User: What shape does this take?
Amino acid sequence: MSAITGIYHLNQEPVPYDHIKTMLNSLHQFPVDDVQVLQRENIFLGCHAQWITPESIGEKLPYYHYELQLSITADAIIDNRSELFNKLQVEHSKRKMISDSELILLSYNKWKEECPKHLIGDFSFIIWDERERKLFGARDFSGSRTLYYYSDSTRFAFCTLMKPLLQLPYIKNELSEQWTAEFLAIPWNYETVDVGSTVYEKLKQIPPSHSITVSRGTVKLTRYSTLISKGVLKLGSNEEYEEAFKEVFQEAISSRLRSNYQIGAHLSGGLDSGSVACLAANSLKEEKKKLHTFSYVPVKDFVDWTPKSRVANERPLIQSTVQFNGNIKDHYFDFEEKSPLSEIDVWLDSLEMPYKFFENTYWLKGMFEKAQEQDIRVLLNGQRGNWTVSWGPVIDYQAMLLKKIKWLSLYREMSKYSENLGVTKSRVFSVVTKKALSNSRKSNNTELFPSMINSDFAMKTGVYEKLKQHKVDLTGSMTDSYAIKKHQFEQLFHWNITGTYSSKLSIQHSVWDRDPTNDLRVIKYCLSVPEEQYVQNGYGRSLIRRSTKEVLPDDIRLNQRTRGVQGADGIHRMIPIWESFIQELEKMSNDSLVADLLNIHEIKKSILKYKYQPKPEHVYDLDFRILMRSLIFYRFMKRVS
Assistant: This one.
C-alpha cells in the first residue's frame, strides 16, 4: 500500500535534511496519493502512500500516538481486523475509523514484540517506541512486502526499495560475493538460501516470518512464525471437511476485496485461479461490482507444439469459467510486442537485482499495467494453491499406499483413477510402482542443471557446501511430492522472490497482488487436513474439486487430463531478434566482466546448440535457461560495474 522509509541515529545526532530529501526523491518516480514524514529528535520516518483500502484514504502515515508515545510507518493491509478488534476490545463505533497501521500500533502496545504473531495479511512496518528508545518492525510470514535496511554502530536506515538506501552517502553499492555465488549455483527459481541477504554487501533485508529490534546499539532478528502442522484435523465426514474449507477460503478471499476501487484477478484455465476468481466474483455481486479478470494468451501466429496433456492457449477453458460464473468481465492479452528478451531491462529496473524467472515476465508485468489503466488496485491470484487449497498428488498418494502395503485402498484408488482417465489399471500400477521406487532410492545423478557458476568462484566461496547444509536439491533427485511440500513450508527462501516482485510491481503501478491461497488461516487449515481428503475416488486435488461443485464448471473442476502451460511461445516471440540475442551472448562469453563468475565453457556450448536453428519447443530446455539467466545476470553486472 506504501513505500516506507526511515533513518535512526543511535548516537542521538539529528538526521540531516539532505539525507531525508535524498531518500524521498528516490521514490518520486512512482505513483502516489500522499507523501508524509515524521521527524522526532534523532529519527525520521517517511511514507510514500498509495491508497488501496477505504481506511487508508486520507490516512495520516507515519502516525504518532501521543498517549502511547509510539510512532509507525507501515506498508500493510491487515486481513483479520475483526479478530484483532475483539482481542483488543476496541469499541464497535470506532472500528471503521481505525487504519491498519494504527491497528498494528495497538497490537504492539498490547503484545509488544509478540504482536506479529497476531497479524494476518501482507505487511512490513517499523515502529518507534519512544519510551523504550527502540525500533521494532516485522515482515509478514511469507515476505509479501519487502523491507531492506542498513546498519552500523551509529545509524540504522530502512526502505521498501534498495535504491533510496544506496543514494545515502555512507552506503556503498558493493556486490555481495556470497549472494552472487548462491544466485549462480542454485538451479531453481529462488536466488539464495540466506533470505536476510541481498545482492549488495551492505544492505540486508528483514526475512519473511521475522521481526527486527534495534536497541542500545544492537540489531536483533527474531523468527516469529513457523509453518509446521500441529496435528491432523479429525472431522466426521467429507462434508464437514468441505464446509470448514469453504468457510476459511471464503474468509481469505472476502478480506482481500476491501477496496474502494475495482477488483481484478489473474485467471488461467485451472482450479486455483478459477476458484479464487469465481468466489470473489460471487462476493462482489452483493456490492453490484463485476470482477475484472486478466488472462495471458499466446500470440496469434503461434503453433502449439506442446503435448496433448498440456494446453498452451487456455482461452476456451477460461471462457468456460467466465460463462459459468456470470459476474466476470474477462480480458485477454497476448502482449504481442513483448518477449522474455525485450523485458530484461524493465525487470532489472523493477527488481533492483538479477532474476531467474524469465519465462512469464513479458505478460506478468503487462497485467499490472493493464490493471492500472483500469484503476484496479487489487489483483487476486492463486499462486500458492498447488501447495495449499489444491494439494493432492494422485500418483504420489498411491505410491505411498503401495509402500504402506494398504492394498485395498490402493486397488480402489487405482481403479477409480484408471476409470477417470480411460486407461488400464496395469498402466496406472506401472507408473505408481516406478514412483514408489524413485521416492525410496537416492539418485546417482550428480547434476540436474548445466552449471551457471564458474567452478573456481564456487570453490572460493564454498557455495556448494552451504547449499548442501540447507538441503538444496542440486541433482533433481527429490521427486517425492510430500518431501518437496515439507521443504516448501520449512524453508523461507522458496517464496521470498514472489513477495519481492509483487511488492515492487505494486509500488510501480499502485496495484496490490494478493493471494488468498497464501492466507495464513488457509495454510494452517490445509496443513491440518488428512491426506485422504486430498486424493479420493481416483481424483487428485479432491478437496477443492468437491468444495467448488457449485462454483466451477465440471470441465474445469473435474479435469485431470490436461493442464495449462504458460510461456510456451517465449522463443517464438524471440525468433525475429534471434541474431541480436546470439550476438549479445557471444559478447558476454568474451567479456572479462563476468569471466570469473560465469561458467563460460558451458555457456559457449549452449550458444552453439541454439545459434542457427532456434525452435519454439526449446523454450523449457535447461540449456536455453542457462543462456537467458546468464544474460540477465550479465546485463545487471554492466549496470553496477
